[in-house]
Amino acid sequence: MEKPKIVTIDDDPDVLEVLRIALEANNYQVYAASNGTDGLRLVKEVRPDLIILDVMMDTITEGFQVSYQLRSQDPKSEYQQFSKIPIIMLTGISQKMDMKFSPEKDGEYLPVDEFVEKPIRVESLLEKVKKLLKK
After folding, report:
1. Cβ count within 10 A of residue 89
2. Could you list the pLDDT tens digit for every one of the 135 residues in the chain?
3. Domain 5-134 belongs in CATH node 3.60.110.10
4. Boundaries of every domain in the chain
5. pTM score, two decimals?
6. Shortest CA distance to 31 belongs to which of 6, 53, 55, 10?
């Protein structure tokens, strides 16, 4: 059986390394990108089963922009075929800007399936990964 493929997109190499170690230890194939542009290219190449995406990278809202592109309802979007891939958004934004996100409250206008606060609690992240991959 083929291992589920996960694309991680974060500008912090330490976060990418923690994600890689935790996910590979749990039998996932991990592909990493350090910005939204490379992440979108990687999604096209890899066709992942799940995406883990940071909010703040080259710009403060880059992660949101990437998720909107991936979830575009435009039938002509180059990412249309990837619109159903589950997205977990990593966010440290609550620490920096006193904002909080939740899928129940913000899922209507933020096109992601789950939020994980930084610093990342690996157990919590792995629970969300498993839950989303079962859907």
Report:
1. 25
2. 799 999 999 999 999 999 999 999 999 999 999 999 999 999 999 999 999 999 999 998 899 999 999 999 899 999 999 999 999 999 875 444 444 455 445 445 578 999 898 889 999 999 999 999 997
3. no
4. 5-134
5. 0.89
6. 6
